């Protein structure tokens, strides 16, 4: 059986579904006169939650290692037919040797993997400034807007392989075992689940309790919040901007959904074992 065709069909269907979901939310936000940055955060949150659901499903079905090792599997085959053979040979072999659940078939595992990769792809496209930016959001009616405007890297294996090398810099910069590589990827993905607002809230919490926070926890905070960037902090009226207000006021900036936001943040922080900041968050739940 040609499982590559099965995978391709499933992946395309999932991409269409999640692209439509993202575009629908973008148009809804524009209609409600939300800003570009707010809209991007809203859509990112939706896709991020879908990724978290996908991770849980991968873990439940013991497919995490297959996802992490997919790139290495592609390098075992001729690039001209790498995707076909990766799925039909290497991935099928992995499934046969490692997945012991009699209730899960190989096509079902392909559906779980393709669904996860489709969400990840649409989320990546959302953050490509050439595809979605302020000019497109404000200056067009979004009637013909789409998020899949360039070749999909999961279909273009040469591009996919180059992207993976560039993204993680593992082979060039580190002398790592396969287990080390997987561990790095896992933590990078956990960090990517925090949006800018959540990072600013963590900074706000830290500012209020910094005298009690030890160096390891500070370093973890730097890792999580390191990608925060907003030009408004460089403007004369920065104190009136959302970026500054969240960083200084934390949860008080929000009029609603405070408790839900706190719970989500505590859940995301759990694997990082940041005791002082987590305790501070829990105190907010009790107020």
* N-to-C series of helices and strands: HHHHHHHHHHHHHHH
The tally of helices reads 15
Helix content: 55-70%
Uncertain stretches of 5 or more adjacent residues? 167-177
How would you state the average pLDDT, rounded?
80
Number of strands: 0
Largest sheet: none
Compute the number of structural domains: 2
What percent of residues are in strands?
A: under 5%
Instruction: Give the distance, in angstroms, between the N- and C-terminal Cα atoms.
Output: 59 Å
Radius of gyration: 21 Å
Shape: globular
Structural class by secondary-structure content: mainly alpha
Brief description of this entry?
This protein folds into 2 domains: about 5-190, no CATH class; about 195-285, no CATH class.
Describe the structure.
The chain is an all-alpha fold and 287 residues long. Helix 2 runs antiparallel to helix 6 (106-126), helix 11 (196-209) crosses helix 13 (242-249) and helix 14 runs antiparallel to helix 15 (275-285). The chain contains 15 helices and no strands. Helices cover 68% and strands 0% of the residues. It folds into two domains: 3-192, no CATH class; 196-285, no CATH class.
């Amino acid at each position: 059986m040609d499982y590559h065709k099965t995978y391709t069909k499933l992946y395309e269907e999932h991409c269409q579904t999640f692209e439509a979901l993202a575009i629908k939310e973008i148009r809804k936000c524009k209609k409600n006169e939300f800003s570009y940055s707010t809209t991007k955060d809203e859509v990112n949150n939706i896709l991020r939650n879908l990724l978290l659901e996908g991770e849980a499903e991968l873990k439940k079905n013991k497919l995490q290692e297959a996802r992490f090792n997919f790139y290495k599997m592609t390098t075992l085959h001729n690039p001209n037919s790498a995707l076909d053979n990766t799925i039909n040979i290497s991935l099928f072999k992995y499934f046969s040797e490692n997945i012991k659940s009699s209730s899960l078939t190989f096509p079902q595992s392909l559906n779980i993997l393709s669904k996860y990769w489709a969400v990840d792809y649409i989320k990546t496209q959302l953050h490509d400034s050439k595809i979605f930016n302020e000019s497109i959001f404000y200056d067009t009616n979004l009637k013909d807007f789409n998020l899949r405007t360039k070749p999909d890297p999961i279909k273009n294996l040469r591009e996919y392989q180059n992207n993976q090398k560039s993204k993680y810099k593992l082979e060039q910069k580190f002398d790592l075992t396969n287990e080390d590589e997987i561990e790095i990827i896992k933590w990078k993905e956990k960090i990517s689940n925090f949006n800018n607002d959540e990072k600013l809230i963590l900074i706000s919490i830290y500012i209020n309790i910094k005298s009690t926070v030890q160096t390891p926890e500070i370093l973890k905070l730097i890792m999580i919040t390191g990608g925060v960037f907003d030009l408004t902090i460089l403007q004369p009226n920065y104190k009136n901007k959302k970026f500054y207000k969240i960083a200084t006021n934390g949860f008080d900036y929000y009029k609603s959904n405070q408790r839900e936001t706190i719970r989500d943040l505590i859940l995301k922080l759990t694997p990082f074992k940041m005791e002082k900041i987590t305790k501070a968050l829990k105190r907010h739940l009790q107020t």
